[in-house]
Amino acid sequence: MSARVFVPGDAAAVSVGADEVAAAFGAAGATVVRNGSRGMLWLEPLVEVETEAGRVGFANVEPADVASVLSGEHTGSIGVVDEHPWLTSQRRVSFVRVGVVDPASVADYEAHGGWAGLRRALSLTPAEVVQEVTDSGLRGRGGAGFPAGIKWRTVLETVADQKFVACNFDEGDSGTFADRMVVEGDPFTLVEGMTIAAHAVGASEGYVYVRSEYPHAVAALRRAVDAAYTHGYLGQDILGSGLCFDLHVRVGAGAYICGEESSMLDSLEGKRGEVRAKPPIPAIEGLWGLPTAVNNVLTLCAVPMVLSEADSGGPGWQSYAELGTGRSRGTQVFQLAGNIRQGGIVELPFGVSLRELVEEYGGGTLSGRPVRAVQVGGPLGAYVPPDGFDVPMDYEALAESGAMLGHGGIVVFDDTVDMARMARFAMEFCSIESCGKCTPCRVGSTRGVETIDRIIAGRDVAANLVLLDDLCETMTKGSLCAMGGLTPMPVQSAIKHWRQDFEREGADV
Length: 509
Fold this sequence. Notes:
Blueprint: E1 4-6, H1 11-14, H2 18-27, E2 31-33, E3 47-51, E4 54-58, H3 66-70, E5 77-80, H4 85-88, H5 106-111, H6 116-122, H7 126-136, H8 148-157, E6 164-169, H9 178-185, H10 187-201, E7 205-210, H11 215-230, E8 246-251, H12 261-268, E9 292-296, H13 297-307, H14 316-321, E10 324-325, E11 328-329, E12 331-338, E13 344-349, H15 354-361, E14 371-376, E15 383-384, H16 395-400, E16 409-414, H17 419-433, H18 439-456, H19 461-478, H20 482-486, H21 488-497
Parallel strand pairs: 1-2, 6-7, 6-9, 7-8, 12-16
Antiparallel strand pairs: 1-3, 3-4, 4-5, 10-11, 12-13, 14-15, 14-16
């Protein structure tokens, strides 16, 4: 009997040779399953071999290592992967099946608890489903943190001939990759979550808007959607419940602004992606002017657990609500990136400290030098200095400290980083990615880049710092959406904590 070997098909693993490794195992006669990544990206390609003791992992495998892995003699063994301390110390909800199941197999998904949330949801009324999502405390994982249940109730109670569910999978923040990883490793969870949402709000059609830079995720999702239709989890009369729901995958054209929900809706309608003024909100007038529930990938991937029964036999929403702290309930998927020794995915209840994530899970910097700054929440998030690392990672605590959680991205910088140039990056990013609809964002970011360039060059530094502060205030208060409104956050945090990087003379730009 040939050995059963798991080789990740995740884009991160593929980028370091996983396809070649999988081909080598196949040529050696092994049965190869292309699973998702476990999230320990510093160990990729991480190959798992099925044994009587469990799936034993081998780190950083190359094609030449096939024989030693199959014989168990490879020096990169990390033991049974499910028992690895880095994983066992986490509380995985959205990622509970990622890396475990075959992402192309409906049967494997069901064998690991898949579709249980949908089956139970279909036994409830839409209002009951909405109430359980509300009671769970689930908030949007796209960055804003708006309660999902309130959004769903608004769509449910709005009268219309047709309603939609739209998944925002335009994950464009630098240092974030959780959406991609969950869809590449467990796409049926997203399909299930969207189908539950459709039942809850009365939608008959759904769209997943995927960024074009994610071809592996697009392929995995389309394969899962086709399989779900074949097995009766999408389409007409789903599981005999009377629910009819069609799901479409749409690929964006590379515009960061389309991660903003109203710009995404414009793009889905075939228009240029531009931010819409609010009100009306998409829950009332969204896609083609009809009520639309817009949620992020991780929000929808948490829904099946919320609607299924907990391991204790009680309701899933109650178990979910028991995780976390304050108004931040459940878990957050943190993404460790940048200059970090152990980059990857860490899913934990809200309330874990930034220090624990960076120093314990991340292992400090890859360079071995001291950490100088960590950016939390993507390119529009604040830079946090080491003396702020004990802040709890939840929506309210971070906001109180002058930062934001965003999509859970954590990018680490060592003591060689120039924070004035990082401030410039934030402004330049905004000037390039702005949709251009409002003046504070379009013009303010361009003027901001010019002002920071003068500061870096040492020209009239004091006056230009005052001007930059004025620009930031105008952008914060006058921009139409978070693109321009939040760009000042990394700039002002850099000036506040590393002012010495701005007060200099004569350096070339």
